[in-house]
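As the next step, I selected for study a record pairing a protein sequence with its backbone structure tokens, which the following lines show:
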Amino acid sequence: MEGVYRFLLTPRWWGINVFVLLAIPFCVFMGSWQLSRFEDRVDDHRTATEQAASGHEHAARPLDSMLPVDKSTSGRRVTASGRYAGQLLVPDRELDGKRGFYVLALLRTDSGKALPVVRGWLPGTADPAKAPAPPAGEVTVTGALQASETPGDNGVSAQGGLPAGQTAAISSASLVNLVPDRLYDAWITLDKGDSGMKAVPASAPGGTGLDLKAFQNLGYTGEWFVFAGFVVFMWFRLLRREIEFQRDAALGLVPEEPDREPVPSG
């Protein structure tokens, strides 16, 4: 290089150039990785939603053969046998745009463990008088397998202090103090609503939805690409300022700064 561009060979500009050459590929790589994470979540959401919607097309399998619940088994149809031993209500649940509550019965299986079974949904405020009593005697139920709910996810309430006989979330952690039996870390929603109640459709497993984490990945993607553009912008800005300074110094328009290297004479 000749003239004003010789400053690019100075140690200070070697450091700037190396930083830029390393920073831009790193930002592009991180942005691409975050974008791939977002796309993976979109694919997981689509797959999980399709699986939850098409679960009724598969033949029902015994409950124990489909545990533990994961992305591959959530929404699949299972069967279990036992006797109903108690019933709870799950308030503030929406179905078809209306507020209501789930009727949740505990099926005590031959293993001695209780399986939470959502028998159906009813409109209005949760009221034990509105909920039909569970069938007596030995029963066999068929429904979609679901993972334990987590309060705060997918609209699940984290409300506490509910009246006796109610629970905010359907999970072993929430039910352990309400049910005397050992509990399955899973629950099912019946294919057909029991005693005239509306059936509750299966939902996609947790961690597969387009939730805050998914859109955080998308936001981070934009941030990394913006930073890469900012690095390029600042490099050109510094370059232009340096060129202007070198030209002015060569013309004697500005005094040379002590910490700058002398400009080689042409």
